[in-house]
Amino acid sequence: MQGRILSIVPRGYLPELTGGLEICAMETLEFFIEQGYSGAVAAKCPQTFRGKLTSRLSRKLKGPFSTIHTVKRHQVYTDFWHPNALGSLFDKLKPDFVVCHVSMCDDLLQKLIALNYPTLFYIHSREISPLFGTLPADHKFAFACESTFIKKQFQQISEAHIDVIRPILPPQKFQVSDTGDAILVINPHPKKGGKLIVEAARQLPHRRFLIVGGWANTQHDPEVVEIEQALKQLPNVTRQAHVEDMRTVFKQAHCLLMPCVVAEAYGRTAAEALIAGIPVVASNQGALPETVGDGGIIIDIEAPITEWTTQLENLFNNSDVYRNLKLQALATSQQDVRQATFIQKQLLDHAKRLSGK
């Protein structure tokens, strides 16, 4: 056995939450397990009435982080008061090092900085905590993030070195032999440009929109409800729940639409679409221009809706433009820094430095 790893997420974990952070945490840990490490995850208990009740009872009877379930080849320890009792979990599991997946969680960062355990902070948030600018001189930490966009944000706060480590995206999970005729959207949340998506579908009634997934914990948000109701009224919109196998939707897609209105830390879905040879039409927010590269079209989020519909139509009506963007999408996805072998070496280098092995 190479060693023990504890992966920490700032909120719930699979299967309850299936966002980019949780998937990245799972894939990163599973890679280490493939290399001979043993691994576990610490997370917050499910935020349902039953989940909270079960966690509190288990904590009272058995102690902190005593609610356990299994995802693939690792155990997941959850607690109602996560991250307050991380020290006790460290004592129990005795990991050689920790990987903390960071997303706007100052309480978690405060705890880990105080513990000063060998930790790789893997940042997935567009907002960098000022706590990273006040690290102890003898800290045992390393830092990574998903994009140069986040790296620049981090460097404005901290003098610590930080590496760009993109998510591991195995090509076989996203490659398709053929694509379809739908304008694909993943998660029509307001922050992801939900209102613009609705308006684009209204103005392009002759185009099929395939809308997939969404954040379950926001389903009662009034803005989310308004967008979902508007989508239901449009005959050219097909609404589908979250899917495990992205190939099932990529094979139906002509292009991917990502009009995010907030700064994306990476844009995982865009990177996945490029692997499938699917051009991306995205906003200029955060890391999206960096992630999309030459494999799509970047539009200023302040541009009128006509700019979005014109560019989308051009992907259907101009075969030369579309063919070139498909080739560029594939070429962008094949950059060295996006390859699994490159990313895995970065992770292993950090593991050796942190664990001393």
The major β-sheet equals: 8 strands, mixed
Please estimate the helix content.
25-40%
The first-level CATH class name of the largest domain: Alpha Beta
Summing up helix and strand content along with how strands pair, one would put the structural category as alpha/beta
Number of DSSP helical runs: 13
- DSSP, total strands: 14
Number of individual domains: 2
| Strand arrangement across the biggest beta sheet | 3-4-2-1-5-6-7-8
- The CATH architecture of the largest domain comes to 3-Layer(aba) Sandwich
| Unreliably modeled segments | none
Radius of gyration: 21 Å
What string, H for helix and E for strand, traces the elements in order?
Answer: EHEHEEHEHEEHEEHEHEHEHEHEHHH
Fold-level CATH name of the largest domain:
Rossmann fold
The oligomeric state of the chains shown is: single chain
Q: What share of residues are in beta strands?
A: 15-25%
What does the overall shape look like? globular
CA distance, first residue to last residue: 11 Å
Nearest-integer average pLDDT: 95
CATH homologous superfamily descriptor of the largest domain: Glycogen Phosphorylase B
